[in-house]
Design a protein that fits this description.
Layout: H1 19-28, E1 37-38, E2 41-50, E3 53-61, E4 67-79, E5 109-110, E6 122-124, E7 142-146, E8 157-162, E9 168-183, E10 189-201, E11 207-217, H2 223-235
Antiparallel strand pairs: 1-2, 2-3, 3-9, 4-7, 4-10, 5-9, 6-7, 8-9, 10-11
């Protein structure tokens, strides 16, 4: 199981008032948990096919009503196939910052909530080495944050997430933290990520927690697997109608 040149001034490696806290927290927070969650936060994955591109969105849930994410820090991310095979559609020729997306639906980026538009408040911290946000991959230990916490951009939004073959993975509220785009691969790709997340409720003290995920994303079953999936659905008892969106890495 498992999983970008210099940015524009003011966005590439700003100093964050939360950075000292994040670094200190990174020293004491142990990344724990199994598969898709650790501590009080959970990682949720949504997959979409756009032409021949697989779009994988990573979301993080917040366990408290009114809570919002401030930053992701001390991140470790890897993806099968390598970071340099990820697709970027932005005006800088390959940046992880969402403000420069020219087609956000099929652009690879990191974020703390919001949309891939110029007004997005996401910035990266100095741990993005050596080239900042336009380097091919995400540096080990890197972080990104909402540079305008009073905007509450990191507040959860309603999402309805599924795998490429239509299986529901999560319906509820979560905050978008990354999008990975790559050419569709029949076997999918391994994706792993772990790190810390700073969040708070309104202006209460900041809470530092950890996240962890490891799995295969973008996998579409062959005819036999798809048939078995359909049979499985048909054999399950009906549920009540409790229905309630939208993610370059080392092998």
């Amino acid at each position: 199981m498992e999983d970008a040149h210099n940015g524009v001034a003011g966005r590439n490696a700003p100093s964050s008032p939360l950075q000292p806290l994040c670094v200190a927290a990174a020293l004491v927070i142990a990344v724990t948990g199994a598969h898709a969650h650790a501590g009080m936060l959970e990682v949720k994955i949504g997959e979409t096919l756009v032409g021949d591109l697989c779009v994988v969105d990573v979301y993080v849930t917040v366990p408290h009503a009114g809570g919002h994410i401030i930053s992701v820090f001390n991140a470790s991310v890897s993806m099968g196939g390598g970071f340099d095979t990820l697709v970027h559609n932005d005006s800088l020729g390959g940046t992880w910052l969402p403000q420069y997306a020219t087609d956000g639906a099929i652009d690879t980026f990191i974020t703390v909530g919001g949309e891939p538009v110029p007004s997005n408040d996401t910035s990266i911290d100095p741990t993005w080495m050596p080239e900042g946000a336009t380097q091919p991959g995400i540096s080990d230990g890197a972080g990104w944050f909402n540079s305008n916490p009073t905007s509450f951009q990191g507040a959860p939004s309603p999402v309805d997430l599924h795998t490429l073959d239509g299986r529901e993975t999560y319906v509820g509220f979560a905050t978008h933290v990354a999008r990975f785009v790559f050419a569709q691969d029949p076997g999918g790709r391994s994706l792993s990520l772990a790190g810390g997340v700073a969040w708070q409720v309104a202006h209460a003290p900041t809470v530092f927690d950890s996240i962890e995920y490891a799995g295969v994303v973008g996998n579409v079953p062959g005819p036999a697997g798809a048939a078995a999936f359909v049979v499985g659905l048909a054999s399950r008892p009906c549920r009540g109608r409790d229905r309630h969106s939208h993610a370059r890495a080392t092998a």
